[in-house]
């Protein structure tokens, strides 16, 4: 005799026969049998302060809904105790009977309803055009209906009327690349979240996206060859010059060889760096391989070096990963200080941005051999690693 629905914003609206307050409107009026009673003119049921609904069931003469807190409330005809209120009173047909005044059904100490529903509405997709394809991204729905989302159904249309489904297999990722599209054709896209219960509400359509073939630039090169005739060579006449030879005898002179002093300067010490192998997740103690890396690197150090150990935090819970990174860096610098007594050490943590390193970097396999690496290292590349930088004092 009546119908109820959970909307995409998790509110509830009911219409049909209003007897016994089964519509939750505070009266027994029928709704939906007259013009202008539905749509925006139909008010949502008062579920309670800040409460939303997961699912709703319309019985013959009463209605029950599951809240976002997994509690259940019922209203309508109360005969035979069907509302679970502890009485046979009818609820929902009078003022001040809904919302916070409607008491949840007592299911037992610390027990809630185990309810699974379809997911909510996914966000409208955003597309980037390619050659015969469009790459899409969208936001997951605010509610998965109590069951994990298993797939997103992707559809496309050229006229906003006829929609075709893109077959891309099963994936819970909030992105997809739609292929097989026609270039220079305008498309719109929409997605629908799916869980083990059912499909959710289809998203609003994307803005128009038009695939296009890449632009090809052709360059024509013209080569002009000029041949220059050789210039004739004229041999100038040879002049005959009379020469007079004068011979002068000079007494021999004692020659002293100059004294040359060569001083060889030692090359200035070079900066060195080492990047350790990744630590195991949540580990702060060095593995046997990591210890060998550090010990080999220590053979290149002197007590005049300034050593900095930088732990890479990576992405995730910032406080936990920052503390792990600092502990790992402390462990590395402590081992170097034991191997080279008197060396100066400092510890840092790389959370974001880039880290300055030395120009020459020691490879883990052979600390004394050098290879050129970038002067800046992105912090995310140091995730679960420790960077050691040795600068001459």
Number of helices: 2
Number of E strands: 19
Query: Which term fits the overall shape?
Result: elongated
* DSSP helix fraction: under 10%
| H-E string | EEEEEEEEEEEEHEHEEEEEE
Task: Give the overall pLDDT as a whole number.
Answer: 83
Question: Taking strands numbered 1, 2, ... along the chain, how are they ordered across the largest sheet?
Answer: 12-19-13-14
Alpha carbon gap, first and last residue: 88 Å
Please mark out the parts with pLDDT under 50 across 5 or more consecutive residues, or reply none. Answer: 237-250, 260-266, 359-373
The rounded Rg comes to 41 Å
User: Strand percentage, roughly?
Assistant: 15-25%
* Largest sheet descriptor: 4 strands, mixed
- What is the structural class? mainly beta
Characterize the structure shown.
The protein is mainly β. The protein is built from 2 helices and 19 strands. The strands form 7 sheets. A 4-stranded mixed sheet has the order 12-19-13-14, covered by helices on one side. The protein has a 3-stranded antiparallel sheet with strand order 3-4-5, with no helix packed on it. The protein has a 3-stranded antiparallel sheet with strand order 6-7-10, with no helix packed on it. Strand 3 and strand 4 form a beta hairpin. The termini are far apart.
